[in-house]
Write a sequence for this structure.
């Protein structure tokens, strides 16, 4: 006869719950929320408030006025342009790279490339600027070799310190960032879809046109938005490379914050900052939306 | 998908572009950095220069210190938070998710403008205020990495099992949770450290003098030295992480095989 | 039912072989499928059933062998030109398309006229009984619904052969048997020759005309479910299909074996053995008969065994008896009969069958 064994004794200290119930007041999460409120949300709201305050502390929209014309408007246009160009180049080349790596690279190579991409994608700022100044400066090996081959870039008006130059340098991190962000989407393209398409009589082109592109588009577009936000907002690299000759919003904000500023100039900086936030938030919202759509499709 | 021809041409194009855009600049910059005084020959002059500058060590150590603090603070803040999010407070995940995207959305420049407002005055005059912002800046990456890592282990089940066997909370955290999420924790630590060490924007706008900022200023005297340093740090990071990835990927392959066989 | 019964196609697979490096996935796989038949390929993971299916579909290449549909060579054709319908285990619906667009995919790439396409889609949805889901997206459907749509999609092109690669494995148990019967119903109505791959023997036995049991890349037996169950050709088939006891026995001669002090004929197709050999006899639970010992006693006498377990399975009950061997011997009785037995009872065990299959220990 099978004996029913007694249920194992649960050795839990008396009085203490086996498992914390979810509180309605998330005490355990308080440190996080406090930290974020203090160092993220409060500063953001401060920027917002400063942008709406005039010289004598009154509420006003006058700080936003300079953005509608002149140098500030140009700066916004240039910044957006920079963001768009680098986003486009980064997205197209990066998607291509991601495709090649995903389909043709072995496991180890992929792991190495992933980590290298991570380093490159987070590069930027000062070291990157200096590196490109070194490698494409007037006296560098590359320029000399090209000159020897008959291609004198500098004679043709190339300059690292122009918008083109900055865009060129930005590609160095935009492309790897695209690879990083887009490759998982490629992975989500299930092989069953291609096989099903084939079994139903579809050609490779049918598959690409009707399934691969539509499924990948949200992710591609979203990633491009992410790249845009980054290209638009980048500060360090641009600062290290340009000497005020390229009008970019981050740099203007920098100069306004830098020296000893009069109150209203600082508030104008805040207004510019708010403008930047707006542009970036719009782009990033698009990015988040794209991610949600993709995961919805790929969940099942 | 494409025929063999398509495959090889795609790979060749990739390698070509990579060479042009990534490898060549690195090499060219490296070559430049090894140039000797007055452009004669090649030597380590530039690498030595930066080391010999006043304040090199001090600023480097400062950045390392800030980086370590930022990494530690990040973990102290996020590991318990994410543990709670996965265990008992799942309903708060969407909010936290959204909050952690914010530092990516808000241009750092903009953040810098409002940064000082929330600082208690005793911190405002100390460079340690930067540590808090470094943590915020790293938040999107560390949150994502830790979230994924915690999501890949059956956290709830493990904790319940551990507790039902009589382990205390502390024991559970130390023996089960931390080892389980080891990958994510290490990655988060490295990420925040790396970000903190290289951060320029907020540092400069708040008028602090960390290693990156100091490098830029020093470079105004000798661009070659600054270049040497940049090249060095870059290549160092790439090689280090590449090696780590190479060695750890083979390990994870074994782990996967063991799991499948079980 | 609006679907027209098409004349099914005959599928001839001959000598199909495939190796992956040192691993032999398929070894001279040969099978002849009659028009309109549903053949199930059954076996454990790695037995080659999926490889065979994918070669027919064109998703894998064969090292050797041939496949013909109605006499026409198939392997020389590319995968997208074989007029074959395929249903995958999961995740095969195109996520960016509605149900209607999924089903019409094969028709659209064939450039069929849109009014004809529309009609066909509606017919297919009626066939799988999902007309109200016509504009839904795959992520809005349950697993069972998705597989029904996948089936509709595959049948929409009126394929000559339908291939199903473990279509039920990813579904919940309850849904599984429903969809299983659906598939069979639809297959019969449409008359499509079908090859169905599964590792679940209950599934295979329930719906197939004939079942091919495979192991290590080889076809061990191709027969009706009935024959597979009652006349297994090899010990592997005997133990894989249905439940069986493996009881230590001694060969009395080359044709008879002694199990539990009973002399029983050895079935054909068993391994060749000699008198005195120790073997394992494969005895189905329904062949084990129990007789309650008269009287109640706590002491077991010779020839008596004690009932140890009793498992209620619905119409049948499985009773485990300790006959003095390492493992219990299981008998299966109708639950009505089983009411007479309780755990702890003493019983006499005998084997009621003409012949048993044996294998070497």
């Amino acid at each position: 006869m099978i004996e029913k064994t007694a249920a194992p004794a649960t050795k839990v200290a008396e009085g203490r719950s086996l498992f914390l119930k979810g509180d309605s007041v998330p005490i355990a999460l308080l440190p996080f929320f406090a930290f974020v409120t203090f160092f993220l949300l409060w500063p953001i709201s401060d920027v917002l408030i400063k942008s709406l305050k005039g010289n004598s502390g009154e509420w006003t929209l006058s700080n936003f006025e300079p953005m509608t014309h002149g140098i500030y408007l140009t700066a916004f246009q240039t910044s957006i342009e920079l963001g768009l160009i680098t986003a486009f180049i980064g997205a197209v080349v990066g998607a291509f790279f991601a495709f090649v790596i995903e389909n043709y690279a072995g496991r180890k190579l992929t792991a190495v490339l992933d980590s290298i991409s991570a380093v490159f994608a987070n590069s930027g700022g000062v070291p990157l600027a200096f590196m490109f100044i070194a490698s494409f400066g007037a006296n560098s090996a590359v320029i000399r070799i090209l000159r020897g081959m008959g291609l004198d870039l500098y004679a043709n008006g190339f300059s690292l310190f122009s918008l083109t130059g900055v865009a060129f340098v930005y590609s160095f991190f935009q492309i790897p960032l695209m690879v990083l962000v887009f490759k998982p989407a490629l992975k989500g393209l299930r092989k069953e879809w291609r096989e099903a398409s084939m079994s139903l009589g579809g050609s490779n082109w049918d598959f690409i046109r009707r399934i691969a592109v539509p499924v990948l588009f949200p992710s591609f577009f979203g990633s491009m938005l992410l790249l845009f936000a980054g290209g638009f907002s980048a500060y360090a690299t641009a600062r290290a490379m340009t000497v005020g000759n390229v009008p970019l919003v981050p740099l203007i904000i920098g100069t306004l914050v830098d020296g000893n500023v009069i109150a209203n100039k600082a508030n104008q900086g805040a207004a510019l900052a708010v403008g930047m936030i707006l542009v970036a938030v719009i782009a990033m919202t698009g990015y988040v939306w794209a991610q949600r759509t993709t995961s919805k499709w790929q969940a099942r | 998908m494409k025929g063999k021809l398509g495959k090889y041409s795609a790979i060749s194009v990739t390698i070509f572009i990579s060479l042009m855009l990534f490898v060549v600049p690195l090499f060219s910059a490296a070559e430049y950095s090894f140039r000797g005084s007055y452009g004669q020959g090649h030597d380590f002059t530039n690498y030595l220069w930066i080391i010999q500058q006043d304040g090199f060590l001090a600023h480097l150590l400062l950045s390392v210190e800030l980086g370590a603090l930022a990494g530690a603070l990040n973990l102290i803040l996020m590991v318990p938070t994410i543990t709670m999010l996965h265990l008992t407070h799942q309903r708060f995940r969407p909010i936290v998710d959204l909050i952690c995207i914010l530092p990516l959305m808000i241009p750092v420049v903009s953040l810098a403008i409002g940064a000082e407002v929330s600082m208690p005055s005793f911190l405002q005059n100390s460079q340690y205020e930067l540590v808090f912002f470094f943590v915020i800046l790293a938040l999107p990456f560390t949150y994502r990495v830790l979230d994924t890592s915690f999501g890949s282990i059956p956290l709830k089940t493990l904790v319940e099992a551990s507790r039902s066997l009589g382990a205390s909370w502390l024991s559970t955290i130390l023996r089960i949770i931390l080892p389980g999420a080891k990958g994510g924790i290490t990655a988060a630590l490295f990420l925040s450290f790396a970000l903190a060490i290289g951060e320029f924007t907020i540092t400069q706008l708040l008028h602090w003098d960390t290693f990156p900022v100091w490098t830029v200023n020093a470079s105004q005297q000798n661009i070659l030295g600054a270049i040497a340093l940049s090249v060095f740090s870059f290549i160092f990071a790439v090689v280090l992480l590449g090696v780590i990835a190479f060695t750890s990927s083979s390990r994870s392959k074994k782990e996967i095989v063991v799991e499948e066989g079980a | 039912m609006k679907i027209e019964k098409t004349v099914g196609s005959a599928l001839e697979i001959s000598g199909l072989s495939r190796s992956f490096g040192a691993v032999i996935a398929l070894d001279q796989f040969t099978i002849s499928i009659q028009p309109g038949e549903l053949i199930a390929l059954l076996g454990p993971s790695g037995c080659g059933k999926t490889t065979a299916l994918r070669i027919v579909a064109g998703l894998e290449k064969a090292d050797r062998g041939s496949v013909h549909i109605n006499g026409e060579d198939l392997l020389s054709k590319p995968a997208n030109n074989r007029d074959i319908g395929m249903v995958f285990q999961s995740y095969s619906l195109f996520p960016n398309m509605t149900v209607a667009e999924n089903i019409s995919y094969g028709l659209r790439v064939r450039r069929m006229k849109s009014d004809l396409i529309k009609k066909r889609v509606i017919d297919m949805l009626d066939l799988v009984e999902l007309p109200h889901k016509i504009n839904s997206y795959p992520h809005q459907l349950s697993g069972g619904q998705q597989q029904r749509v996948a089936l509709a999609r595959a049948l929409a092109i009126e394929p000559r052969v339908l291939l199903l690669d473990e279509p039920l494995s990813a579904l919940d148990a309850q849904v599984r048997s429903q969809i299983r019967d659906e598939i069979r119903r639809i297959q019969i109505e449409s008359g499509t020759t079908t090859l169905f791959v599964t590792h679940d023997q209950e599934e295979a036995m329930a719906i197939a005309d004939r079942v091919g049991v495979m192991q290590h890349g080889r076809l061990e037996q191709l027969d009706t479910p009935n024959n597979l169950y009652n006349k297994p050709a090899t010990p592997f088939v005997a133990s894989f299909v249905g439940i069986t006891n493996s009881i230590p026995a001694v060969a009395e001669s080359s044709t008879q074996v002694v199990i539990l002090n009973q002399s029983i004929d050895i079935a054909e197709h068993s391994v060749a053995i000699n008198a005195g050999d120790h073997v394992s006899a494969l005895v189905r639970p329904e062949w084990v008969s129990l007789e309650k010992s008269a009287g109640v006693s706590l002491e077991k006498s010779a020839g008596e065994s004690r009932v140890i377990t009793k498992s209620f399975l619905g119409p049948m009950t499985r009773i485990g008896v300790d006959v003095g061997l390492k493992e219990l011997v299981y008998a299966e009785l109708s639950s009505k009969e089983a009411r007479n037995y309780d755990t702890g009872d003493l019983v006499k065990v005998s084997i009621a069958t003409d012949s048993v299959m044996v294998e070497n220990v």
The two ends of chain B are 34 Å apart (CA to CA). Chain B has 13 helices and no strands. Confidence is low (pLDDT under 50) at residues 250-262 of chain B. The first helix of chain B runs from residue 4 to 33.
